[in-house]
């Protein structure tokens, strides 16, 4: 199982393949992995101790950042993410980031799961994907329906206020006009927006 992989000077943690969304641009339908990662399909979710054992083999301070991002939504395993992140913080000064859909409240049927990330996650990148709930449904296709868009916005506001280093992302599979409206929404919320190229 490839629990860890590197892209450039960042170390990535592939902690689950589970995801509540079926994004129209998701590379999981077409590729086993990316950029020399090897296959990112897991036999099963790795335990915290398995992740920690792999991290022990790395010189964490040699990386620009450690990122929770693999072939699934990391916050499906929010408690394990927090435990691993705390371990990383206990032995290094490396920046810890998470890439997420931002809908962990719905995943865990709990209010304000973002609070769990404070103090152990330094930065959060959130998949905005579209400027309105209806458009988000078409692109992201979450199992929770339109409620997911509003949960993601709420999560983003909390992260901005309590973690600070937050960014939205969209993939350039939507129209230029939709991207412009995403920028307007992001500006309104005071959150920077990154437009990503679809992985090929």
TrEMBL record:
Alphabetically ordered keywords of this record: 4Fe-4S, Iron, Iron-sulfur, Metal-binding, S-adenosyl-L-methionine
CDD domains assigned: Radical_SAM
Domain Radical SAM core: 5-200
InterPro entries, per database record: Aldolase_TIM (IPR013785), rSAM (IPR007197), rSAM_sf (IPR058240), rSAM_TatD-assoc (IPR023821), rSAM_TatD-assoc_bac (IPR023822)
Metal-binding as UniProt keyword: yes
UniProt cross-references to Pfam families, sorted A to Z: Radical_SAM (PF04055)
GO MF annotation list: 4 iron, 4 sulfur cluster binding; catalytic activity; metal ion binding
NCBIfam families in the cross-refs: rSAM_pair_X, tatD_link_rSAM
Protein name: TIGR04100 family radical SAM protein
Source species of the chain: Clostridium lentum
